[in-house]
Amino acid sequence: ERCAPHSARQWDKEQGPSAAPPGPAHGPWSLEDVLGEEDEQDRVPLQKLKLLGESEELRALLLNPHLRQLLLTIDQAEDKSSLMRRFMQEPLFVEFADCCLRIVEPPEKENILPE
């Protein structure tokens, strides 16, 4: 309590015992707030996301300063969707997106006969 300027007890007194105190895990929004049930199919499992960090191909792409600037611009933009539509015309960004998709959703092997 001494370390935290706004302790859980103070929070309970001010907000009531049912309110959760703010903290790192309780940011301004959670993934559930952003994605509805209809978006469930668009989620990528955490273990597949971790594969992105292990990809040498993706790491090599991220060494490109132009790509890094594109990603920073998107991250800091207010209107991300229109910017994404514009960047999807950039060959370097498309290469990055395709690389990410190949990692989290490897293409199914087509035309392979079972043995």
Q: Would you mind describing this structure in some detail?
A:
InterPro entries: ZNHIT3_C. Pfam families: ZNHIT3_C (PF21373). This is ZNHI3 protein. Residues 1-15 have a biased composition (Basic and acidic residues). Residues 47-104 form the Zinc finger HIT domain. With 115 residues, the protein is an all-alpha fold. The chain has a domain at 44-104. It is built from 7 helices and no strands.
Features:
115 residues; 53% helix; mainly alpha; disordered N terminus
Q: What proportion of the residues is helical, as a percent range?
A: 40-55%
Number of strands: 0
Query: What do the pLDDT scores average to?
Result: 74
Largest sheet: none
Low-confidence stretches: 1-26
Strand content: under 5%
Spatial shape: globular
Could you give the order of the helices and strands?
HHHHHHH
Organism: Onychorhynchus coronatus (Royal flycatcher)
Pfam family, one: ZNHIT3_C
Protein name: ZNHI3 protein
InterPro entries: ZNHIT3_C
